[in-house]
């Protein structure tokens, strides 16, 4: 499961980097005008060409979530729906990318209902793999030791929280904006808040990984422990150097007086 976790984390970080640094979108309300104020804007690239990479990052992040839960489901040995062959998995994810490719090719010519249908397909896939994992870990008896099963359940709960928590932050923000629209109280500050929330999605996901998975938490603690050890050694060395200088100065003064 290291590779699916790495892929998901990479695309979450890429989403942050895209929205927070490369091509930060600035939407003017209520005119609906869009302006890019990120790093790539200094090259005077047309807005349409900046939107396309952002869409690709969002779509790749969505598919990486499918990959995460599919890998978790396929790791259960007696799961009859697990994908066993690498070739089958490659074909499956190529089809997923082809499903979204018209968004990039014909950005403004796709009806809204097709976009909603694609979002529903992604959601259905994630829910299916989650249901399979829950069924074979909780409901159906599995041929594994109680300790292994407990570890599998613990890890499954961890990746669910890891995936849901960042999405919950985004969904909550956009739910507030939808309520503001319905109440006719949408302001520029709420629109800006939605963009900022997307740009910190990866940060929330990183904090979730560190909080949930003990090995990552131990690695971070070890890193800070090493930094503290180096700092203490440096301070001790500096103090020793100062003491040596003071001792040498006192010794020289005594020699001169004698």
From TrEMBL:
Highest rank taxon of the organism: Eukaryota
Keyword Transmembrane among UniProt keywords: yes
Family matches, as Pfam families: 7TM_GPCR_Srh (PF10318)
TM spans (from-to): 47-69, 90-110, 122-143, 155-183
The UniProt record lists the keyword Membrane: yes
Keywords: Membrane, Transmembrane, Transmembrane helix
Name of the protein in question: Serpentine Receptor, class H
Gene source species: Caenorhabditis remanei
